[in-house]
Structure to design on (776 residues):
């Protein structure tokens, strides 16, 4: 069986799974097209994240465990680009916040300059401490009242600066840019570290990004969440009130409520597919180009590549930024799909480690593998719960309905999700370490 | 007198909690460091290993309590601890036999081991949630305080109280005993020496007839012990929740790395550095300052450097700063 046929069959298999989810309620399938489209949409977003991770790990061997942070930054970009600016926020403190942040940045620059200019010794430490402490005090003195001013404005609904009020689709590239900018900052500091040290550092940086989003209410409303973000597609209610749409739905024999929900979800599927295909095409071109070959050469033997005159640090930084930008785009798409930014829900199990499972199961180093992994693992992530309940109902069929063990097992069935994901990852690593669609 | 009050307030709100938390982190970081130096990978499943050992201990504690067994003023969990350790040891040996041994035989790259430990992390996390559920569990009983704030005030006549919880006392004492035993084991016993030899130079150790499988087995047994003790102490002091234990991975790794991966002394130092900086940077200093500065200079705000939600951020900011200046940690850890 040739590689192409195998790849096509695997994709066909996932497609059939999603079609079955929509068309039949046999076994664990729900028989709802809405549910099938929900799975498909998040699967597409996950596939994009997997492409980003594959770029870093599969192409260049960079072990980035901070994906969650970049996804969350993409979400933040949606708020910053597409919500309306809060009236009065900029005059109440927005300017002060910007000044304070500039002051903070200047402090860091001054600290770095001190490191460079003052010779090592007690004097350097003293000057450095003085610069840092003084900078921090001034920064807080400007920052705190400005933040209080912004957060005081109608905190039940706003309390943040708001955004630029631009169309929400612009937030997707903006999310990529924001993630890329932060990735540049992180890469400049952390990429010198070796594999395990880099992994832990990125894991921690992602946590820092999330705690900033949770606490800086002026920026993201924190755990109060930003809801009702604008959408690129019409609202269901408007469609149901649109006589032409209702008539069209009736032509297909569909109830207007169902037709409108399907219409919106299909719209998202189309938008996401376009983005996914574009990114996949670019990643594929990159892989086949001399640049991609150089990346893989660096990944396989850093020392040899360096001897050939390749600037390993620079290339690593480059691909770290590109991969993170893709994760940022996916994060912005996800927030648009949800119509809300909820910083409290970003969790490394779901937004970092699960993406890793997708890349490894699909096949690291192969873009199609990453996409397949994204779609397949997301389907399983959703469907393992009903599968587990089904399994336990079958196993415990002989027990009475009041049996304590049976009740406990049924109640715990939903936690089989993590267990199964771990098992899948271990089995793939053991028996097919290069993934379902291996690198060619 | 006011200076004394300030000192007591500082001990009460910063000193005591940070020492207890630091001991818990140090025990966790010692486990991570041992795996790194002998098996040569960063074990992402460590937080969930702690959760597993603690879960067994909790279940046994509940069983003891239902039978009316108690440990007087001390928590019953201490009686259940050995069974918890044994359960955790069993799980570690099974995991090593079914999962890690295959990759050791293949001489897989460290990064593959890390991936594998991700899979183990998922499975253990799921297993713990499956058995005990994702919710919060409290299992401490016995006397609550060694000395309560009220007794302390009555005793000394100071305005500030000092409270030391029983669990905090137990944590520190247990940590000291465990660390002493560990260092004695590593430095004095034959097995401990062969572990260190294997960690320093694998090939040389193999040449001198050290059995690597035995070294690995002992490492897992010690790691299971350390992880369960650390987990139970943390659970007694605060509470047990699977997700919290998974998140403990972050400060524990930060501690191990700040000290230098592979260095036991570094792990202990790292644990206390992380704990003290988390507590001091997120503590509201107003109370202490009002005792020390003159009346006119009293601070208006809470004088909190960062809000409490930033505690993970603090440990990682320290981590990044240390790594920038000393890429292998304060005590010169090893690089795989």
């Amino acid at each position: 069986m040739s590689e192409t046929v195998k790849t096509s069959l695997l994709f066909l298999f996932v497609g059939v799974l999603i079609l079955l989810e929509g068309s039949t309620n046999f076994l664990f399938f729900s028989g709802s097209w809405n549910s099938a489209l929900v799975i498909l949409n998040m699967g597409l977003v996950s596939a994009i994240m997997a492409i980003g991770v594959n770029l870093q790990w599969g192409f260049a061997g960079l072990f980035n465990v901070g994906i969650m942070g970049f996804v969350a930054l993409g979400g933040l970009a949606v708020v910053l680009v597409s919500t309306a600016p809060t009236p009065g926020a900029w005059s109440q403190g927005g300017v002060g916040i910007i000044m304070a942040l500039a002051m903070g940045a200047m402090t860091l620059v001054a600290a770095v300059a001190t490191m460079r200019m003052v010779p090592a010794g007690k004097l350097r430490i003293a000057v450095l401490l003085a610069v840092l402490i003084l900078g921090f005090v001034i920064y807080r003195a400007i920052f705190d009242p400005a933040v209080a001013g912004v957060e005081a404005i109608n905190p039940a609904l706003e309390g943040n600066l708001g955004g630029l009020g631009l169309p929400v689709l612009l937030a997707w590239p903006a999310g990529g840019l924001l993630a890329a900018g932060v990735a540049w900052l992180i890469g400049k500091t952390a990429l010198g570290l070796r594999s395990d040290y880099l992994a832990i550092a990125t894991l921690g940086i992602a946590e820092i990004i999330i705690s900033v989003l949770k606490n800086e209410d002026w920026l993201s409303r924190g755990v109060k969440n930003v809801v009702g973000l604008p959408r690129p597609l019409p609202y269901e209610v408007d469609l149901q009130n649109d006589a032409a749409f209702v008539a069209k739905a009736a032509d297909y024999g569909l109830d207007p409520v169902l037709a409108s929900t399907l219409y919106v979800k299909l719209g998202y599927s189309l938008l996401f597919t376009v983005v996914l295909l574009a990114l996949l095409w670019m990643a594929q071109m990159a892989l086949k180009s001399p640049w991609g070959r150089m990346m893989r050469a660096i990944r396989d033997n850093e020392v040899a590549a360096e001897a050939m005159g390749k600037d390993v640090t620079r290339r690593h930084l480059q691909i770290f930024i590109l991969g993170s930008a893709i994760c940022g785009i996916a994060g912005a798409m996800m927030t648009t799909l949800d119509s809300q930014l909820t910083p409290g829900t970003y969790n490394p199990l779901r937004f970092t480690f699960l993406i890793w499972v997708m890349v490894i199961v699909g096949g690291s180093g192969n873009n199609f593998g990453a996409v397949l992994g994204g779609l397949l693992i997301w389907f399983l992530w959703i469907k393992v719960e009903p599968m587990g309940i089904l399994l336990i109902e079958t196993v415990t069929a002989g027990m009475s309905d009041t049996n304590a063990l049976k009740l406990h097992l049924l109640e715990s069935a939903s936690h089989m999700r993590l267990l199964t994901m771990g098992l899948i990852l271990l089995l793939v690593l053991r028996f097919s370490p290069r993934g379902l669609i291996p690198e060619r | 007198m006011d200076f004394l009050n300030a000192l007591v307030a500082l001990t009460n709100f910063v000193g005591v909690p940070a020492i207890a938390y630091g001991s818990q982190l140090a025990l966790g970081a010692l486990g991570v460091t041992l795996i790194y130096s002998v098996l040569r990978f960063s074990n992402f499943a460590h937080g969930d290993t702690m959760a597993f050992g603690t879960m067994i201990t909790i279940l046994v504690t509940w069983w003891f309590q239902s039978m009316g067994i108690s440990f007087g003023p001390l928590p019953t969990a201490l009686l259940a601890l050995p069974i918890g350790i044994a359960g955790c040891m069993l799980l570690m040996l099974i995991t090593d036999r079914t999962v890690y041994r295959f990759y050791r035989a293949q001489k897989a790259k460290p990064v593959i081991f890390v991936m594998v430990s991700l899979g183990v992390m998922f499975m253990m996390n799921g297993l713990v949630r499956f058995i005990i559920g994702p919710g919060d569990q409290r299992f401490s009983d016995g006397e609550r305080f060694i000395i309560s704030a009220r007794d302390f005030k009555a005793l000394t006549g100071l305005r500030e109280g000092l409270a030391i919880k029983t669990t905090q006392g137990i944590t520190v004492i247990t940590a000291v005993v465990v660390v002493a035993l560990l260092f004695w084991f590593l430095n004095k016993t034959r097995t401990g020496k062969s572990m260190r030899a294997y960690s320093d130079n694998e090939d040389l150790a193999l040449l001198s007839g050290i059995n690597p499988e035995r070294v690995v087995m002992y490492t897992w047994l010690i790691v299971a012990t350390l992880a369960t003790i650390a987990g139970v102490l943390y659970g007694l002091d605060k509470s047990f929740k699977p997700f919290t234990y998974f998140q403990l991975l972050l400060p524990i790794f930060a501690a191990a790395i700040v000290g230098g991966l592979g260095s036991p002394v570094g792990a202990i130092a790292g644990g206390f550095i992380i704990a003290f900086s988390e507590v001091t940077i997120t503590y509201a200093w107003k109370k202490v300052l009002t005792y020390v500065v003159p009346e006119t200079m009293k601070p208006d705000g809470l004088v909190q450097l960062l809000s409490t939600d930033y505690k993970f951020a603090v440990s990682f900011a320290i981590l990044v700063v240390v790594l920038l200046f000393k890429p292998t940690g304060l005590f010169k850890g090893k690089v795989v």
In short: Residues 20 and 242 of chain B are 20 Å apart (CA to CA). Chain B touches chain A through 49 residues (CB under 8 Å).
